[in-house]
Amino acid sequence: MQKTPARLHLHIENRRQSLWIYHITDELWAAAAMRHKKLAGRLDVTIGWDGDILDAALRTADCMIAPNPPLVWLPSDIALTNNSGAHGAKCEDYCAMAMLMLATRMPGMLASHRAARWEPLFTTPIAGKTALVIGFGDLGSAAGRAAKKLGLKVIAVTRSGKAGRPADAVYKVSRLESALPQADFVVVATPLTPQTRGLLNRDRLALLKPEAGLINVGRAAIVDHDALRDMLIAGRLSGAVLDVHAPEPLPAESPLWTTPNLVVTPHISCDDPRYIDILLDRWFANFARFAAGKPLLNQVDRKLGY
């Protein structure tokens, strides 16, 4: 086993155009280093912005924290990990909120509110209905936990056809057409890969019950948002909550803003203001494993893309 050097150079790369919640500042790094003094004492750290010192840093860096590097950019002998697991708690809250909003027809009532129109919408209790969760990793499992707490049956759809708790049943993605008609709520929580791009196209959306609702916390390109809009306008779907869009920010002229029975949120479903603290604590946990010669957690499978 190769011995870990006594000191390592960690480079942290930031993008100014990203939201402040994702910036690893000197102050946030210093706070994390205080929480992990022994491990931090082995690191020489540089913090860059928009590539200002990146070329020089890469000449000596042993490890790096950076936003979304393209997999083709990384040498094959470099281990890549992600922050999976950091988003579950917030996503669970968001999905519970979204499912309850759809179950109570809140998008329609908000439209009536804005129009100063008294239009009672009566609904049945949410318990006993079915949530279909596409993708059952960190986000999908969180959506499943939210659904179970609300008394729903949970059907998972995964690439492998396997899923752990709290799924009551699981389908391979190749059998998605058989699963969709069962859903009262569809939660899209899968990563965007060549295989999932356009997964919920017009034909598959048409398999949903008219009273069903859709929630997307995964990536916009997984769902045909134009087809979804057409279905909402035609009353072929009861409602939708979209947290991911293309492009982002969603332009003011986008027709999604005025689509009936649709709630648009600005990509806030899975992160909170403690995001960087969570990220750095998880990074230090993995660094401790690296220093001890243990396998790293959350290693990205380059073939799968996540």
Provide a quick synopsis of the model.
The chain is α/β, with parallel strands linked by helices and 306 residues long. It is 30% helix and 15% strand. It folds into 2 domains: 8-84 and 273-291; 88-264, Rossmann fold (3-Layer(aba) Sandwich), CATH 3.40.50.
Strand count, sense and barrel status of the largest sheet are: 7 strands, parallel
Strand content is 15-25%
Count of individual domains = 2
What is the assigned CATH homologous superfamily of the largest domain? NAD(P)-binding Rossmann-like Domain
For the biggest β-sheet, the strand order reads 6-5-4-7-8-9-10
> What is the end-to-end distance?
27 Å
Can you identify the CATH class of the largest domain?
Answer: Alpha Beta
Q: Give me the strand/helix succession.
A: EHHEHEHHEHEEHEHEHEEH
CATH fold-type name of the largest domain: Rossmann fold
Mean pLDDT figure: 94
- Report the total helices: 10
Helical proportion, percent range: 25-40%
Please tell me the CATH architecture of the largest domain by its name.
3-Layer(aba) Sandwich
